[in-house]
Queue: 2 jobs
Job 1
Amino acid sequence: MNRRHSVESAGMPCRAPLHIDMLPYPVVVGAFLEREVAAFLNSRSMKRVVLLCDRRVEEHAYRYAEALPKGTPVLAFPLGERRKRLRTVEAVLDALAEAGVDRQSTVLGVGGGVAGDLFGFAAASYMRGVPFVNLATSVVAMVDASVGGKTGVDLAAGKNLAGAFCDPIAVFAAIETLDTLPARQLREGLGEVVKHAILEGGVAFTRLEELASLSLRAWPWDAIVAESIRIKSALVLDDRLESGRRELLNLGHTFAHGLEYATDYRLSHGAAVSIGLRAAGLLAIRRKMFSREEHRRLISLLTQLKLPLHDEDFETEGVLEGMAADKKARNGALRFVLPRAIGEVERGIAVPLSTVRAVVERLHTV
Ligand code: GLY
């Protein structure tokens, strides 16, 4: 069966790609974007391209390479959150040098959130910077990591602690690749989609409530991804370096990064974000900012989407240690982004450690 048909039957129709023109670089969302990628590179006279990919999506990378000039190299690397480290960046940089990549070349990174962060960082450093195009193949990468120019890797002390702001020159969300994503990864990617829907409120949230009972394979992913990217883009546009409103995108993330760190990245980012959103709600209730009714609505959505709300196997102190290393801490004090309502979120809220510890303890059970 031809792949287009297999994707259509999985509820991902071949509609015209959606173009998002809110950022200084184009963002294209759609299935089978080979022609769009080739046309973009041609329009910029970018003839020398190298593809970097996560080994797990090598098949997709080769399919996209076929639409580019003959001989376009594809360099594949085993990735994953535990390999999101400087040593992998060095391996990527060595491979670029070995492949003869120069400053006239463009790097096209193919993969999920780790690939986008790590390959984007490598492209930003190689010969002091070569243009980077992001081809996202996971929900987290599409709706979050691909746009906004945050690149980097984890350090032993915590997540995303080494990196640089460096915008891609274009982003392509290759929706057909979701069809080959393991079901669990597809589902857990929804943590970031829910986060954006809480920030936006209104139809963005109710649409997820309506879709929640459908099989994920039947979701209109192009529309959902595009809407989520628009919500993020509006916050990133005026605050590229995260000194103001962009911080709102960290809703649930201080807890999530602490949980990822404490579980040595056994929890995926999406799963940790889902638990982190519950934690942000619990903390906001304790601060008397958020009603129990709104929190129930959030928990009901996360439950219907079968996203995790707790984890039995983590050390509370480990989570607190990971949270303290978070970039969002200021002068050692933990500051949170917390909801006042679905659609109304506030940043920069300092909370005493004892309150944070009590909330983290609650995350061992539902
Ligand atoms: N992931 C949050 C941001 O890009 O600011």
Job 2
Amino acid sequence: VIVVLTGGSGGATFVQGLAEVVPARELTLLVNTGDDLLWWGLHVSPDIDSITYALAGLLSRERGWGMEDESFRCLEMMQRYGAETWFQLGDRDLALHLTRTRMLAAGKTLSQATREITARLGIAATVLPATDDRVETIVSTAKGDLTFQEFFVRERWQVEVRGVRIEGAERARPAPGVLQAIAAAEAVVLAPSNPITSIGPILAVPGIREALRQTPARVVAVSPIVGGAAVSGPAGALMACQGLPVSAAGVAKAYRDFLNVLVMDTRDTGETAKVDALGVKAHCAATIMTSAEDKVALACAVLAAATTPDLASRRAAP
Ligand code: FO1
């Protein structure tokens, strides 16, 4: 089984490629829940939503979140009733949030709800929230403390970032199956997701980082930073505010205590020595995913990096 830590649109795009080359039953996705929010009384788990839709072939190609073939009629009426509408729930998408919220209200955990929902959609891969406990990413900004969606969607991340904290993380427990999946994995892959707000909340759950350090599986990450900037989204500013260089080497630094191989873009070849110096093997590949072919090619490059013997890094050496 290949275990993938993922969040955000970069993660969902990457998982689409991986699902083309790895049988779904052999994929376990550990998904960020720091972006979750209660909206119109509904429990929305954006990163679980995106992975679910990606695996079911329902993810909107145009937006990269929400569903294909979507309409926003409910949203129009919510606006008339005076509700906030900067966070948009589509009509078809609503069914997922209604179903999840109903299951949680009936006493199910987020992982149970996710298992039932993914099964209903015919998804054979295992989708696990990193934790069933509430963790919330809070971004400290020039406008005060914002939840992740306030920062990302409402403010379009155009506000100065001062810090990030993951509220509730210290009390959170890994969801059932998370630590076991990491320990028994053939390979662990960190998707090209934002290291601070997509992967960070997963690593902040006590026990998960330690499991990554301990697993006999090779741990491979894909850099979401190319040419000194994030491929999309606010990863650059968020890494900088945590004191990390905004570069492939900065990604290696964030993960160096458990990372064996960093798959980084061919245009960052000049940085491989810096990555190697951190004890992480650098492996260059085309990491920008524009077409379906790009996604599959990157998935193949990552699988190669996870299995090629000469990429065994210092950490994995006998
Ligand atoms: N992203 C937006 O930019 N605008 C939205 O209105 C929006 C709504 C939304 C609803 C459900 C959902 O699952 C995702 C949604 N997203 C929206 C995407 C979301 O902000 C991002 O996928 C992640 O939180 C980034 O990691």
